[in-house]
Amino acid sequence: MKIISYNINGIRASAKAGLIDFVLNSDFDVWCFQEVRANESITREILSGEGGQINLFNMQPNLLNNFYATFNCGQVAGYAGTLVLSKFKPDKVALDMQPFWTDNEGRTTTIFFGELAIVDAYIPNGNSRLEFKMQYIDALTKYLTELKKSYKVVCVGDFNIAHNEIDLTNPKECKNKSVFLPIEREAFTKILECGYIDTFRYLNPTKVEYSWRSYRSLYDDGYNSWRYRIDYCLASENLKDNLSAAYILDVNYSDHLPAAAEIKNF
């Protein structure tokens, strides 16, 4: 199974940039999106091709013909939201992280296929809501700990945390900045300690790649080029032997880059 996680920073803008064709022309089995930033009806419209200009010579593709869609767009207009597209129909779906967490922002979606659970998580940005972010991560840690008792688990998403110095370009300048605060990094470590691995770092111990870049860094590779690896595919340790690949794709449909993992025998 090939799983991809992508913060699209708004489905309207990413679709205009070519996201739909990118999905259709790729061979991933499960797409986990964060920051959809549109309600379900608008998101459905865009995925079905009805949100674009349709004419006889330029038919918009309909993703809903190719994937099962699980919507968790939240109730805050133009904000947050998650969306999962899967080639296979999930056995069941869970929204939020009951009994540990619930919100109206659509931040967490879990789909289940037999013994496998896939969690799509959009961790809050800590610049203005650090306490909220830490509460969410604490709930996520408890939720993943509980899930692992019954399932093999993949948890993907935008964590808004660069775990170690190798995961960002300016660690000294970011030591007091949300994304690299000690409390955030420690919280990420606690998730790993409850029985999870960072698939990218596990398979690429010394590789330097990033999943978010400032718009300035698209044109400037110098000192002021801010880049972070904050998008992850985590896997429960009981999936370690099933991991065959983990990587970041260089595409330009968002300010983030998608993170992907491939799991054998699923």
Give a quick precis of the structure.
The protein has six helices and 14 strands. With 266 residues, it is α+β, with helices and mostly antiparallel strands. The protein has a single domain, classed as Endonuclease/exonuclease/phosphatase (Deoxyribonuclease I, Chain A), CATH 3.60.10.
SSE diagram, text form:
Blueprint (H helix, E strand, L loop, with lengths): L1 E6 L3 H6 L2 H6 L5 E5 L5 H9 L19 E5 L9 E5 L5 E4 L12 E6 L2 E7 L7 H18 L4 E7 L23 H12 L2 E3 H5 L8 E2 L13 E2 L2 E6 L6 E6 L10 E5 L3
Parallel strand pairs: 1-2, 7-8
Antiparallel strand pairs: 1-14, 2-4, 3-4, 5-6, 6-7, 8-12, 9-12, 10-11, 13-14
Helix pairs in contact: 4-5
Rounded mean pLDDT is 93
CATH superfamily: Endonuclease/exonuclease/phosphatase
Distance between the termini: 5 Å
How are the strands ordered across the major sheet?
3-4-2-1-14-13
Number of separate strands: 14
Query: What's the oligomerization state?
Result: single chain
Low-confidence stretches: 53-58
CATH class: Alpha Beta
Number of domains: 1
Rg from Cα? 18 Å
Structural class: alpha+beta
Strand content is 25-35%
Give the number of helices: 6
Global geometry: globular
| CATH domain fold name | Deoxyribonuclease I, Chain A
Instruction: Work out the helicity level.
Output: 10-25%
| Helix/strand order | EHHEHEEEEEHEHEHEEEEE
